[in-house]
Design brief:
alpha/beta; seven-stranded mixed beta sheet
């Protein structure tokens, strides 16, 4: 099938993109694209905020590609424009084009989403989307076939929402193909508005903390799942060789959650002599002077900490599991 994966149009004007000056690739879509391509489907990705694409330019691009399926990834701030995009697809391309929504917002707000799209992919999307696209190719929009797919939501013939059982998390992340970066505008990604040769890499998924304001532990699970050091280093080596990348941004919410893992990864990168620097997320209670010095000496140029509050009462309320003594 021809599958078009996209972020909603006209979202580059939103604060989450406008203020940071950061242009980052939609790694989730790129992972899904890689899995679909591996199994014979034709895929296109439209990274709308990076290309600063509005509705008219976007729908023209969609129409010109003539997709069978359009998948739209949505965060909460981008969902309204995502729903408007889904409506525009139906108006301009017809009802035969299946519109799928995925991402953190619709995973939990699937009833709302199904007022605007045909099917919702809930949670980790790679294999759910593959199974869904295979079923659509073989059976069309057949609700009996859809009901057998784990991790989706759709409306039955009477209009009631059907939610299938959740799909288990991917245990071996090394089995996933690397993101389909050949479908992305790799020369357009920046860091804080500067045209630095940067690439984004995911080395782990999950978070054990369950803070009430954060989706990570509910979307990716409370248990950390790590790729192997070798698999991550192989991907980075490809990025250096093929795209001349100089800086890696790890998209993991908390790369330093496992001290042995992060130090082992750094040692593997050193062993290969890769000329890069990197940035990653951390927690203030997961680092000490020894680890900070080690990371700094080995190419870490930025650590992102979520402090959230200087009030212990607030930290307790939001489930941060931090004491002010750490901050």
């Amino acid at each position: 099938m021809k599958v078009l994966l996209t972020l909603p149009p006209d979202i580059h004007r939103l604060e989450i993109y406008r203020v940071t000056g950061m242009k980052a690739p939609p790694l989730g879509l790129a992972y899904i694209a890689a899995v679909l391509e591996k199994h014979g489907h034709k895929v296109k990705i439209i990274d709308t905020p990076t290309l600063e694409m509005g509705f008219r330019e976007w729908i023209n691009e969609v129409r010109s590609w003539k997709p069978d399926v359009v998948g739209i990834s949505m965060l909460t701030p981008t969902a309204p424009k995502g729903y408007a995009a889904a409506k525009l697809i139906k108006e301009e391309l017809g009802e035969d084009v299946i519109v799928i929504a995925g991402g953190p917002h619709v995973t939990f707000m699937y009833t709302e989403a199904l007022n605007n799209v045909d099917i919702v992919v809930r949670g980790e999307g790679e294999y759910t989307t593959l199974e869904l696209v295979n079923a659509l190719e073989k059976h069309g929009f057949n609700r009996d076939a859809l009901a057998k797919i784990r991790g989706i939501a759709f409306r039955d013939r009477s209009g009631r929402v059907t939610v299938t059982p959740s799909r288990p998390f991917i245990e071996n992340l090394d089995e996933l193909p690397w993101p389909a970066r050949h479908l992305l505008p790799m020369d357009r990604y920046t860091l804080f508005g500067k045209p630095i040769r940067v690439a984004h890499v995911m080395a782990s998924r999950g978070c054990p903390y369950g803070c009430v304001f954060c989706i990570t532990s509910y979307f990716w699970g409370r248990r950390l799942r790590f790729r192997s050091h070798e698999n991550v280093a192989d991907e980075i080596e490809l990025l250096v060789d093929k795209y001349k990348v100089k800086q890696i941004v790890f998209t993991d919410d908390e790369l330093t959650a496992n001290r042995r893992f992060v130090m082992g990864l750094v040692e593997e990168l050193k062993r290969r002599g890769l000329d890069i620097v990197f940035a990653c997320g951390s927690r203030v209670d997961h680092v000490d002077r020894e680890l900070l010095e080690y990371l700094y000496k080995n190419g870490c140029v930025a650590l992102y900490f979520g402090v959230e509050s200087a009030s212990q009462e607030t930290l307790n309320y939001i489930g941060k599991k931090l004491s002010l003594i750490h901050i």
